[in-house]
Amino acid sequence: MMRVVLRRGATAALSMALVLTLVASATPPEARAASAAELERDAKAALQSLYERQSSAKLLGSHARAILVFPTMLKAGFMFGGQIGEGVLLKSGRAAGFYNSVAASYGLQAGLQTFGYALFFMNDQALRQLDVTRGFEIGVGPSIVVVDEGIGRSLTTNTLTSDVYAFIFDQRGLMAGIGIQGSKITRIHK
Which residues of 145-180 are buried (b: 16+ CB within 10 A; e: fewer)? Predict the structure, then answer.
């Protein structure tokens, strides 16, 4: 009988290889790189769907300088985890730029999940921050409020005081937790 002993570094490498294999084999077609036109269409459809379900999102959209929509993010993990997706910056309903969002994590996690998220940039300073940095990092820079049902019910034009509001939507799959904190958003060319 042969016994295999993996060192800590080998275990981490094996876990990461497993995650990458899982992501590559299970990535739904819509999460793979889309053309600019497809990505814009998907982002607008996702935003419209969000507006229909969340009146507070529609209120924010009417006051936002721009909205960055990631219609399909893919999150996978087994000890080591990662998430990735592409999005569109919409200004006055038109595509003004394309971005990707990536994040990595480590901890007790396992699973595969897709979701979407939208960032509502409420002022020019927050929007400038997106373009002047070499990768906008959520959790660094302008204040971001993740809108849940409780916050969503209390939003009015008088309570809009933050730089950026975030909505997470269309969660599907088997992953214990979800978030966008620690994500890095970088402008891409389509």
Answer: bebeeeebeebeeeebebbbbbbbbeeeeebeeebb
Q: With a cut of 50, list the residues of the chain below it in pLDDT.
A: 1-14, 16-32, 140-141, 149-159
Backbone torsions φ then ψ of 55, nearest 5 degrees: -65, -30
pTM surpassing 0.85?
Answer: no
* Amino acid identity at 103: A
| SS3 assignment for 59-94 | HHHHHCCEEEEEEEEEEEEEEEEEEEEEEEEEECCE
The pLDDT value given to residue 124: 92
Question: How far apart (Å, rounded) are the C-alpha atoms in residues 54 and 159?
Answer: 17
Q: Give the residue among 94, 74, 93 at the shortest CA–CA distance from 84.
A: 74
pLDDT at 106: 73
What are the backbone angles phi and psi of residue 151, rounded to the nearest 5°?
A: -65, -40
Length of the chain: 190
The whole-angstrom separation of Cα 47 and Cα 40 is 11
